Amino acid sequence: MSVVKKIGKVIGGVEEWVAMISFIAMVVVTIAIVLCRYVFKIEFMQGEEIARYLMIWCGYSGAAYCFRTHGHVGVVVFSEMLPASWHPCIKKIRNIFTAVIVIGVFFFACMCFNKYLSSAQLTTATRIPIAFIFIVIPISMALSVIHTITDVICDFMPNRKEPKEVTE
């Protein structure tokens, strides 16, 4: 299982970098849009489109990263009402349920991506293939599937260490 965790760590590093770089690029492009509009009095329509697509890349790569680090918001009110001895079982059920949902979203994202790919549609202002913009969705969902399945496998491994979850 240590090989899977190492691969997950490398993938997580890539996810983190893609999210950070796309976020920084989005901020820079947005500042450029504001400067062009209010300082130079010119429209920068391509910038608005680029910022929108960078936000998509940032959001989906960040979502996949959060699956690895357990950074997504979770509702624990129900599980906290039950005895502490039930918590490991509830966690296993939650991870299995999450894996099933993410697998379903992955297949739906692949179907949507195939439609974009077959349409050969281009974006309006920048003329970038729409498939290039939305390929991040099935990729991030595939990575999320890997992370959630790793969690499920770790749940059923004997003598496993509890992953650190964000509680803030």
From TrEMBL:
InterPro entries: DctQ, TRAP_DctQ. One of its GO terms (cellular component) is plasma membrane. It is a multi-pass membrane protein. Keywords: Cell inner membrane, Cell membrane, Membrane, Transmembrane, Transmembrane helix, Transport. The chain crosses the membrane at residues 17-40, 96-116, 128-154. The keyword GTP-binding does not apply. Residues 26-156 form the Tripartite ATP-independent periplasmic transporters DctQ component domain. It is found in: Cell inner membrane. PANTHER family: 2,3-DIKETO-L-GULONATE TRAP TRANSPORTER SMALL PERMEASE PROTEIN YIAM (PTHR35011). Belongs to the TRAP transporter small permease family. This is TRAP transporter small permease.
